[in-house]
Amino acid sequence: MTGAPNDHYSYEHYRRRDVAEGFDALRFGGPIGQLIQATQQALLLRVLAPLEGRRVLDVGTGTGRAALAFARAGAVVTGVDASAEMLAVAERQAAEQKLPAVFQVADAHQLPFGNREFDAAVSLRVIMHTPAWWECVAELCRVSSHRVVIDFPALGSFASIESAIRRMRKAMGGNVEAYRVLRERAVRDVLAAGGFRVIETHRQFVLPINFHKLVNSRAFTTGVEGALASAGLLRLLGSPVTMVAER
């Protein structure tokens, strides 16, 4: 494994305390953020059910939103992240909600767990930022005995345009998250090499999430995205893509 450079933007950005403290409001605040969270949570709880007593690892847990949802459903949850600042928020929220979850600092490229130690491994909005995404996916497969769930912005979607712009701005010294888009076939191949086959694929939006947040209307988003899905565009252009894979 390559190991991950500590000066990579994804490490620098999320170790900032102001970013950690403001993360939930930025990502899940407002009607579109709430829609994203509700849709994501419903999908995760369905594809990992039943969760009672199952060992679940949330990689790149951040402030622990998904991990705490799993704990609420009865799972035995471990959440890891490279940012101690993000984990501090997760631990505080777990204490406030009186939910049992273990959080620890760890790198997605080299997880400190044994082979098949967990029933399921989940990683959301992570591999789009990691220096070596294929190593992270391979690690998820290694530590899971049954199921892996990951998501990423898709090549061929509108996210490709935003990604190219951000990477250009980052190269020019801008303070932006210069995420990558991924080819679905490439992700499937890494999962297959780890012994997993994709059993479900979900796509969330046709239009960019930032566009929907700019409009800031749940009714607009559900109406427009519903129409685009009916026209077959979600299947062709939808992003982010969530893959559910099984051993």
Topology of helices and strands:
Blueprint (H helix, E strand, L loop, with lengths): L8 H6 L2 H12 L1 H19 L6 E5 L5 H8 L3 E6 L2 H14 L3 E5 L12 E6 L9 H11 E9 L6 H13 L12 H10 L3 E9 L3 H7 L2 H13 L2 H5 L1 E8 L1
Parallel strand pairs: 1-2, 1-4, 2-3, 4-5
Antiparallel strand pairs: 5-7, 6-7
Helix pairs in contact: 2-3, 2-5, 6-8
Any idea what the radius of gyration is?
A: 17 Å
- Can you count the beta strands? 7
Number of domains: 1
- Rounded to the nearest angstrom, the distance between the terminal CA atoms is 23 Å
Instruction: Give the spatial strand order of the biggest sheet.
Output: 3-2-1-4-5-7-6
Query: Low-confidence parts lasting 5 or more residues at pLDDT below 50?
Result: none
Tell me the number of helical segments per DSSP (H or I, 4 or more residues long).
Answer: 11
Percent in strands? 15-25%
CATH superfamily: Vaccinia Virus protein VP39
Mean pLDDT: 91
CATH class: Alpha Beta
Written as H for each helix and E for each strand, in order along the chain, the element string is HHHEHEHEEHEHHEHHHE
Structural class: alpha/beta
Rough outline: globular
CATH architecture: 3-Layer(aba) Sandwich
What percent of the residues sit in helical stretches (DSSP H or I)? 40-55%
Q: Characterize the biggest β-sheet.
A: 7 strands, mixed
Tell me what you see in this structure:
By secondary structure, the protein is of the alpha/beta class. It has one domain (about 10-245): Vaccinia Virus protein VP39 (Rossmann fold, 3-Layer(aba) Sandwich). Helix content is about 50%, strand content about 20%. The protein is built from eleven helices and seven strands. The protein has a seven-stranded mixed β-sheet with strand order 3-2-1-4-5-7-6, with helices on both faces. Helix 4 links the parallel strand 1 and strand 2 (about 75-80). It is globular, with a radius of gyration of 17 Å.
